[in-house]
């Protein structure tokens, strides 16, 4: 028999706690499914909670928490509101962020503008601390870059040293890195997306600061991270419902497009660069007569893949032409050459067919002129190979003339900085390498000089290409091939430049020469010759 308490005071004291309000505490939503159903406190042990195991029950895991958090994130992505925006810590940050939104983003996506991508980027800048600090670092160094005095040819190397003594850009840069390292889970899809965005902004930052090596390293890390994204998403697919998983896939694909494009364009700056996504894209996106381009952006993506394949094929061909003639070229390269040429011709046909359904304003826009220009140059490069190719360029004068006309239209339609002499910047390769190829490979005196004029029309930086540097190199090549500098030494026709005098291979790097000058260390070989020549040019 149980002992019955009869003391009334004791009984009242034991029940007094019921009359006091319970101390508030946030309700935990992190328990396992089984404990939630049983309405008991979960001990949150992993992978199975001890409370379930000790009572012989099967623990159903913690998937609900992941889905709940992912659901909130998915909802936030769809309903961006002013209350979500992180507060500014001062007027300087507010001004820098405004500059990033109004100027930097437009410059970064100058050739492939995408409002969807800009909205996504700004959303993360406004809501994620790591991305915000990376954007503030880009905005700070971008403004410094635009404010340089180009009239006296300031050196990028010296500028970099001066910039390193300025703390705000570095503080934001380092803070972004610190915040990335402090992320709770590096395997979460959202965390991966943030890391990729910061990596992309760091590439822009390093290029503006003149550190091309670090920019390539950041690009390489971004490409490497992307190679693991598919496996990570597949591994975590069961943790999200279909709608949430689809939202994450869309987000990752936007970042992937930007980094993949930079990855493929890097072949225009480095002979040894091997784009990771090239072979997969080239084999999986073969064109045929039944293919339909649904947008200019889709057509541009296909052309980018073909242009990159052409540059890689050209580098391989250059290695073999020291041993083989064009007819004796390695069979695998010859077969690949014919495949790429067929794909390029198919692309042109499909592109022109798509334009028949576009408005006149779209047809006359840079979004159409630039792909046409890229196609012409790609076609010329693909159809000139072997030991005698420097003379073969003369056969394509009509295409060079058409190219310079399109290039003039592209330069004229580019949105400049408010002051005409201010520079523009984009991490993508665009008009500069094309004008450089025209100036170096087209020996028609008027056409190549028009290319130089366009390069000097306004300072532009595209990845590691600078228009003023490229113009100076082209001018020197013209001087070498035409036997003199200036108008007095100008030849009247291409035929006046013999094969032995034509420059075949060119490379250069820049070095500082005082505070406001840069030295171009130029190396080149003449067609058919084995001797390498080196010169230093002042800018």
From TrEMBL:
Q: Indicate the secretion signal residues.
A: none
- UniProt GO molecular function: DNA binding; DNA-binding transcription factor activity, RNA polymerase II-specific; zinc ion binding
Q: Which domain of life is it from?
A: Eukaryota
Q: Which InterPro entries match?
A: Transcr_Regulatory_Proteins, Zn2-C6_fun-type_DNA-bd_sf, Zn2Cys6_DnaBD
Q: Where is the Zn(2)-C6 fungal-type domain?
A: 31-59
What keywords sit in the KW lines? DNA-binding, Metal-binding, Nucleus, Sugar transport, Transcription, Transcription regulation, Transport, Zinc
PANTHER family per UniProt: ASPERCRYPTIN BIOSYNTHESIS CLUSTER-SPECIFIC TRANSCRIPTION REGULATOR ATNN-RELATED
Name it: Sugar transporter
Species name: Periconia macrospinosa
């Amino acid at each position: 028999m149980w002992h019955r308490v009869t003391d009334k005071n004791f009984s009242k004291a034991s029940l007094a706690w019921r009359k006091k309000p319970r101390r508030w505490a946030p309700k935990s939503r992190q328990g396992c499914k089984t404990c939630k159903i049983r309405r008991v406190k979960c001990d949150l042990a992993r992978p199975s909670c001890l409370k379930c195991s000790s009572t012989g029950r099967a623990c159903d895991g913690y998937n609900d928490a992941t889905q709940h958090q992912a659901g909130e994130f998915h909802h936030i992505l769809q309903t961006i509101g002013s209350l979500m925006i992180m507060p500014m810590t001062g007027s300087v940050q507010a001004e820098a962020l405004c500059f990033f939104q109004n100027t930097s983003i437009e410059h970064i996506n100058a050739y492939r503008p995408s409002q969807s991508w800009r909205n996504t980027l700004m959303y993360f800048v406004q809501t994620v601390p790591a991305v915000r600090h990376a954007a503030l670092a880009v905005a700070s160094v971008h403004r410094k870059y635009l404010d340089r005095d180009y009239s006296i040819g300031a050196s990028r190397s010296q500028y970099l040293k001066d910039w390193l003594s300025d703390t705000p850009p570095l503080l934001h840069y380092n803070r972004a890195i610190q915040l990335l390292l402090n992320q709770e889970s590096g395997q979460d899809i959202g965390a991966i997306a943030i890391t990729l965005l910061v990596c992309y902004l760091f590439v822009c930052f390093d290029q503006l600061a003149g550190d091309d090596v670090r920019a390539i390293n950041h690009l390489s890390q971004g490409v490497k991270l992307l190679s693991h994204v598919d496996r990570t998403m597949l591994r975590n697919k069961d943790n999200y419902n279909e709608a949430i998983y689809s939202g994450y896939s869309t987000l990752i694909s936007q970042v992937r497009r930007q980094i993949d494009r930079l990855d493929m364009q890097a072949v225009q700056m480095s002979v040894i660069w091997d784009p990771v996504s090239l072979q997969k894209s080239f084999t999986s996106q073969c064109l045929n007569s039944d293919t339909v381009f649904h947008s200019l952006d889709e057509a541009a993506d296909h052309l980018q893949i073909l242009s990159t394949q052409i540059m890689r094929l050209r580098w391989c061909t250059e290695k073999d032409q020291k041993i083989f003639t064009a007819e004796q070229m390695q069979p695998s390269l010859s077969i690949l050459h014919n495949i790429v040429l067929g794909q390029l011709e198919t692309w042109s046909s499909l592109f022109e067919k798509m334009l028949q359904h576009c408005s006149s304003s779209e047809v006359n826009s840079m979004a159409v002129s630039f792909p046409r220009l890229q196609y012409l140059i790609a076609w010329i490069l693909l159809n000139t190979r072997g030991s005698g190719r420097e003379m073969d360029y003369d056969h394509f004068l009509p295409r060079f003339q058409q190219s310079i006309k399109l290039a003039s239209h592209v330069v004229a339609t580019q949105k400049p900085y408010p002051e005409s002499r201010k520079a523009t910047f984009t991490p993508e390769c665009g008009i500069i390498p094309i004008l450089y190829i025209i100036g170096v490979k087209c020996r028609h005196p008027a056409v190549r000089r028009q290319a130089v004029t366009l390069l000097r029309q306004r300072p532009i930086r595209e990845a590691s290409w600078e228009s003023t540097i490229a113009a100076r190199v082209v001018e020197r090549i013209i001087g070498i091939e035409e036997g003199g500098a200036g108008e007095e030494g100008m030849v009247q026709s291409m035929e006046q430049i013999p094969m032995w005098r034509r420059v075949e291979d060119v490379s250069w790097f820049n070095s500082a020469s005082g505070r406001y000058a840069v030295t171009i260390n130029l190396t080149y070989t003449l067609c058919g010759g084995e001797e390498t020549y080196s010169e230093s040019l002042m800018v």
